[in-house]
Amino acid sequence: MERTSVQKLARVLRVMILVVFVCNIIMLFFVPTLAAMLTENRWDGQTMERLMTGESVGFWLGFTIHSWNPVIWMLALTADDLYWPVLSLFLLSCGVCTAVILWQGKRVLDTILKGSPFAMGNAKSMKRAAICCFGISGAALVRLIWGFAYYRSIAPLLTYNALFVPIFLMGGLLFLVMSALFRQAAELKAENDLTI
Fold it and tell me: Do the beta carbons of residue 120 and residue 147 sit within 8 Å?
């Protein structure tokens, strides 16, 4: 059976989603390390120099494993160094939500490749993606409020967190609308299959 142009496009999109999904999962492992690198006065100059020059892969790996150590997180919290843990938690939560959204997109594309896009599973996938969008929006709102308290100014309104709140809120609403449309289409398809 020859594939339609929609199925050919779905195949390309599926490959792209899988590549981005794998990169997302890999980068989640490095989030605390990168957040620690961005935090001023977190590591001594020699450590930062070794990381920035890429002196050794082993050092990077050791530094990354070190940054996942719960003791390091607790020390940061007790030393009133909240920026690094808050940034790490925010980026990890957004990364996990993004991975779920990508996986749901892959599932929808799989049904398109099978030739049955109007399945109830697609409605559920869209609803899961909507919940993840709302999660990212909520995490950005929490970080924005935390930024107001941490910096004691309105400067966080000029950051990407302020943009994440409405963008992902609208994305979640769009996914909910698409979920309702897929659900309605699946119900109509099931009804048509019974009448024929």
Answer: no
Lookup: tokens for 122: 């697609």
H/E element holding 129? Answer: helix 120-151
**Coil, helix or strand at residue 192:** helix
Contacts 24+ apart (CB under 8 A), 82-90: 82/150, 83/39, 83/150, 84/32, 84/35, 84/36, 84/39, 84/42, 86/143, 86/146, 86/150, 87/35, 87/38, 87/39, 88/31, 88/32, 88/35, 88/36, 90/139, 90/140, 90/142, 90/143, 90/161
> Which is more confident, 158 or 1?
158
Domain regions of the chain by residue span:
5-195
Give pLDDT tens digits for 7-21.
999 999 999 999 999
